[in-house]
């Protein structure tokens, strides 16, 4: 059965959001939710103005963005290179198989105590924790994308005198695997923001630490402000990535 | 083209077995075949007999166990001695049509302008000059196959190796492309080695039909089709029934031939 598509879906979505915020506001004002523990949505703009005035908002965003970009960048790069190597080099694949099996199930957040011992509450520690999760996502996405490359195209390259490793890699494997690799990077972009907050809750300066401070003084509207800030940053990085990679993937829509 | 029709490729005592096959069994055995420059030869035989394998040995993609393949064409930096057309067109979906045709040229000593010129000329030859900017995903099966042919033509190969290029197409498209291939053959004077399991197709197109049969496969029949082009599609029954009989005998005779 084909569901009926509403004529103005955006209008309906906006109405849904308005109802959600209205119900939330009413619940706090009417005493259904305790005002000490849950801020009213109307209190959040005020938190934003305060955090901008005291300079914390931009500082926290800048610090978190720094952790994020380094962690996601390095994690993606190393994950892609390792995943491609596993798919292309059978000896390397065999050599790393059990190491990967051992390390892979360890949740990225379980590395937090060690990173704090090794790096202290620093940018390097946050980047490491973010990078671990992003690494595995890219490792598996690239591995399966490269492994799924059509053997026929590899034979085609050889038939036209371009069967050497470098040419095969650049002209066949990488372009063919690109959509799968980029979808791995994109998942990593989301996973990265989750890890940012978690790492900073352990005292590394950034949005997470600011949330911890706000929670300590029950400044719940500031807490929600930073939760929404993370959502905004995630949405913006995802959108930017989609826009930038769009033209490389035009052929997948043909 | 020299009128003398000197040979362009010679296979002698060729044997091939898959490297992974531990039994050491050969797929092809004792093949001797000499192709004249400018000729159109079809290889026919039951499916799985090793026709495509033979093309890959000639193309140098796999190595023979015994015997040799001698390509007598003079190698040149701006052309290939042999070019392959695949059954499944095998286009790179991330390259536009022109880019796919240029792919074969990228292994040659040509600058970008020359590559483009030759790719465009090859596309024009298969009637797809207007489709240069399209993605493979936007083409019909017949168009995709034309692009595969253009890619092989662009490298100006002395020998065009075609692996059942029309077998996945509908009957109308197939007949149109067969006639187009004959026109291209006439216009370019290239040598064609054409694999098919379709005896009608082989006798309609080729000047010579070689029947591969048995296990390991040997040449069971080598027939010159003397009917001049253009041929009537239903005027070749004598050749077809002769080949069909030969094909039947090879089955009854089993591997003994």
Annotate the secondary structure layout.
The complex is a heterodimer of chains A (254) and B (257).
Chain A: H1 9-29, H2 44-53, H3 56-88, H4 90-103, H5 112-119, H6 123-147, H7 151-159, H8 165-201, H9 207-216, H10 220-246
Helix pairs in contact in A: 2-10, 3-4, 3-6, 3-8, 3-9, 5-6, 6-8, 7-8, 8-9, 8-10, 9-10
Chain B: E1 7-16, E2 28-36, E3 40-44, H1 51-58, E4 66-71, E5 82-85, H2 97-103, H3 112-125, H4 141-154, E6 159-163, H5 171-188, E7 191-195, H6 199-205, E8 208-213, E9 218-224, H7 237-253
Parallel strand pairs in B: 3-7, 3-8, 5-6, 6-7
Antiparallel strand pairs in B: 1-2, 1-4, 8-9
Account of the protein in words:
Chain A has 254 residues and is an all-alpha fold. Chain A is built from ten helices and no strands. Chain A has one domain (44-249): MetI-like (MetI-like fold, Orthogonal Bundle), CATH 1.10.3720. Chain B folds into two domains: 7-73 and 158-256, Rossmann fold (3-Layer(aba) Sandwich), CATH 3.40.50; 89-157, no CATH class. Chain B has a six-stranded mixed sheet with strand order 5-6-7-3-8-9, sandwiched between helices. Mean pLDDT of chain B is 90; it is low at 253-257. Chain A binds chain B through residues 152-153, 155-156, 158-162, 167, 171-172, 175-176, 178, 250-252, 254, and chain B through 59, 61, 80, 83-84, 86, 88, 90, 92-95, 103-104, 106-108, 134-138, 151, 155.
Characteristics:
heterodimer; A: 254 residues; mainly alpha; MetI-like fold; 10 helices; globular; B: 257 residues; alpha/beta; Rossmann fold; three-stranded antiparallel sheet; 7 helices; disordered C terminus
